[in-house]
Amino acid sequence: MKQRRNIGILVFDGVEELDAVGPWEVLSAWTQEHPDDGWNAFCFSADGAPVVAAKTLTIGAHYSMLDAPALDVLIHPGGPGTRPMLRDQTHLEWVRQQRASVPLMASVCTGSLVYAAAGLLVGRRATTHWASLNLLSELDPTVITDVKARFVDDGDLVTSAGVSAGIDMSLHLVARLTSDERARDVRRSIQYDPQPPV
């Protein structure tokens, strides 16, 4: 039997809700509706306990950092909770350790600021929330920022713009890890077809 591969979404106090829940909706719809593709998706927090997100939603975690299965893809969301992480050497070292072992690292919104602070984006193409593009450049002036993209795929690093852009990025990940057809199936399943009213 083929070994299943794992996508982990990090959650933490102050995470922007849709940064985490948007990718979760896409990836859990995919992995639960198409188990034969061989992927699992889960959320994890530092200690395995629930977290209080930016707008006070409590989000549970399936695992802690210590007991989570080995990751094939890591998604680091953003939100106000990332600001302390930019100076948290323990967290930044954990991110560097993941870079050494996780084949594909992704971020949503200001999650890319954490990657920049950890030194992961040196000379790489990346994006973030439009209001944080200057901060991204301040954290690492070598980052090649894409100010218009919903997401940037730079090989083993994929970053997305703010909040809802994580949905687009996650559908891209489904296409990349399986096929465009599978991503279209998932998009139809969650009825994602943006037609803004204004």
Name its key features:
single chain; 198 residues; alpha/beta; Rossmann fold; two-stranded antiparallel sheet; 7 helices; 36% helix
* Count of individual helical segments: 7
Mean pLDDT equals: 97
Helix-strand makeup class? alpha/beta
Radius of gyration, Cα only, in angstroms?
16 Å
Q: Which strands sit side by side, in order, in the main sheet?
A: 5-2-1-6-7-11-10
| Range of helix content | 25-40%
Q: Main β-sheet: number of strands, strand sense, barrel status?
A: 7 strands, mixed
Overall geometry: globular
| Distance separating the two termini | 50 Å
SSE arrangement, N to C: EHEEEEEHHEHEHEEEHH
| Portion in strands | 15-25%
Low-confidence stretches: none
CATH topology: Rossmann fold
Organism: Nocardioides agariphilus
Domain DJ-1/PfpI: 7-175
Protein name: DJ-1/PfpI family protein
InterPro entries: Class_I_gatase-like, DJ-1/PfpI, INH-QAR
Secondary-structure blueprint:
Elements: E1 5-10, H1 17-33, E2 39-45, E3 51-52, E4 58-59, E5 63-64, E6 73-76, H2 82-85, H3 89-101, E7 104-107, H4 111-117, E8 125-126, H5 133-139, E9 144-145, E10 151-153, E11 157-160, H6 165-177, H7 180-189
Parallel strand pairs: 1-2, 1-6, 2-5, 6-7, 7-11, 8-9
Antiparallel strand pairs: 3-4, 10-11
Helix pairs in contact: 1-6, 6-7
